[in-house]
Amino acid sequence: MGKLWTEEHRFRTMLKVEVAACQAMAELNLIPKPAAQKIAKKANFKISQVAQFERVTKHDVTAFLKSIATFVGPEARFIHKGLTSSDVLDTALSLQMREALDLLLTDTRGFAELLKKKALKYKETPMMGRSHGVHAEPLTLGLKFLLFYDEFKRNLTRLEAARDIISVGKISGAVGTYANVDPKVEEKTLKILNLRIAPVSTQILQRDRHAEVLTSLAILGGSLEKLATEIRHLQKTETLEVEEPFSEGQTGSSAMPHKRNPVNCERVAGLARVLRGNALAALENIALWHERDITHSSVERVILPDSFILAHFMIREMSAVLDGLQVYPDNMMDNIWKTRGLIFSQRVLLALIDKGLSRDAAYKIVQKNAMRVWKDKKLNFKTLILAEPEATSRFSKKEIEGLFGLDYHLKHIDTIFRRVIKK
To answer: Which fold has domain 339-420?
Structure first.
C-alpha cells in the first residue's frame, strides 16, 4: 500500500494521464500522430530532476512537465495541450485511490471470510452476554463473530461504493468549460484509463467524492476498533474468555514479567481515531472558493496516504489477531455460572407471568430474590426460587429446575445464522 503513495508512483500515474491525453488528441487529429507515438515511447521523468525544477517553479506540475521534456524533446510541446494542472492531478489521484481501494478490498474480503470461519467454528460455544458490562443472558461466541461478519459485509459494500464514486476523471480545463480542450479528448482519455467522465466539474473533481471514500475508511476503522475493544474486554484478567496471540519471546512489560497485554488490539483502537480525524478533514475539503482553491491540496497530501496505509495496516493487524486468537471455553462456562443463576431471572419472570401473576407482582418476586444473591455470595438463585412460595405453589421442582438451562437461550442461534450465511 505504501508504494502506491510514493512520489514516484504519483508522478508515474500522472504520466499515464498525460500520455493518454496525447493519444486521444492524436486520434482526433489535434496533434500529429508521430508526435504522440514518440511521446508514448520516450515520455519519462526523474524524481530528483522534478525536485530540482520545483525549487525554481514552486509548482510541481510545471516542474514535472519540464522533466518530461528533457526525455521527449521538441514533441513535448504537445504534452498538456489545453489542460490545466488539476486535469492531470485529479485524474491521476482517482487512479491511485482506485488502486488503493482494490488492495484494501482484497484484504477486507479475506478478513470477512475469517470472521465467517470463526462464527461457524464457535457457533455452539456458550458464553456470557453482557449489557452495560454486566452479565445479561447467555449467547454463543459464534454469534458474536457472526455479528461482526455481517457488519464487515456492509463495510465491503461501502468500500465498493467508494471505489465507484472515485472512479472518475476530468479533462475539462481551467474552470471545467472545455474552452481549450475538446470534450472528445476527455472522453477518449478516460476510456483509455478506464475511468468515467465527471458529468460536470470545475477546475477540479468535487471533493464530496473524496470525503465519501475517507468516511468509508473511517467507518471501517470504527468496526475494527469495535472488534478490538471487544477482544480487549474479554481478555481482562477477571474475564479471560479470549486472548490475542502472545508469541514466544514476547514481553508485556519491562517491569512485570507476567504481563500479557492486548497491545495489537489497543494499537488498532488508537489508530481508528486518526482515521476519524482524517475523515473530518476530508469533509472540510468539500467547500472551496468558487471554481477552486488549493486549501484541499495540502490536506490531501497528508490524509489520503495516511488513511489508506493505516486502514490497510489495521485490517492486516486484526487479521493476525483473529487468526491466532486464543479461546477459553472453560472460562466462558465458569463466567456463565459466576452469578449463581441470576442470568435466568427473565426466564423465571416470564414463567410466573404465564402462570397467572401480573408482571409487576412477578417482577417484585424475582427481583427480591435476585438482590439477595447479589448481596450474599453464599446464596444461589435457583435455590431461592425453589424455596419461594409464589413459585412452588405454581411449579413442580422439576419445572423450576427446567427454567435454569442454557438450551432455552440458544434455541434460535441456527435461525440467526441462516439469515446471515446463505447456503
So the answer is: Ribonucleotide Reductase Protein R1; domain 1 (1.10.40)
- 168 closest CA partner among 88, 94, 96: 94
The amino acid sitting at 250 is: Q
CA distance linking residue 169 with residue 166, whole number of Å: 8
Of these residues, 67, 85, 135, 253, which one is catalytic? 253
For 341-395, write each residue's pLDDT tens digit.
999 999 999 999 999 999 999 999 999 999 999 999 999 999 999 999 999 999 9
**Per-residue burial over 296-334, b = 16 or more CB atoms within 10 Å of its CB, e = otherwise:** beebbeebbbbbbebbbebbebbbebbeebebbeebbbe
Burial of 133 (0-12, 13-18, 19+ CB in 10 A): exposed
Residues in CB range of 255: below 8 A, 6 or more apart: none
Tell me how far apart the alpha carbons of residues 57 and 55 are, in angstroms, rounded to a whole number: 6
Q: Select which of 48, 131, 132, 396 is catalytic.
A: 132
**Catalytic residue status for 412:** no
DSSP string, 31-49: S-HHHHHHHHHH----HHH
310 with 274: CB under 8 angstroms? yes
In the chain, domain spans: 2-73, 91-175+198-245+258-335, 339-420
Mean pLDDT of the chain: 96
CA distance linking residue 127 with residue 135, whole number of Å:
10
Whether 253 is catalytic is yes
What are the two backbone dihedrals, phi and then psi, of residue 308, each rounded to the nearest 5 degrees? Answer: -65, -45
User: Domain 2-73: which topology?
Assistant: Fumarase C; Chain B, domain 1 (1.10.275)
Looking at residue 250, its pLDDT comes to: 87
Give the three-state DSSP class for 416: helix
Reported as a single tens digit per residue, the pLDDT across 175-210 is 999 999 999 999 999 999 999 999 999 999 999 999
* pLDDT, tens only, 117-143: 999 999 999 999 999 999 999 999 999
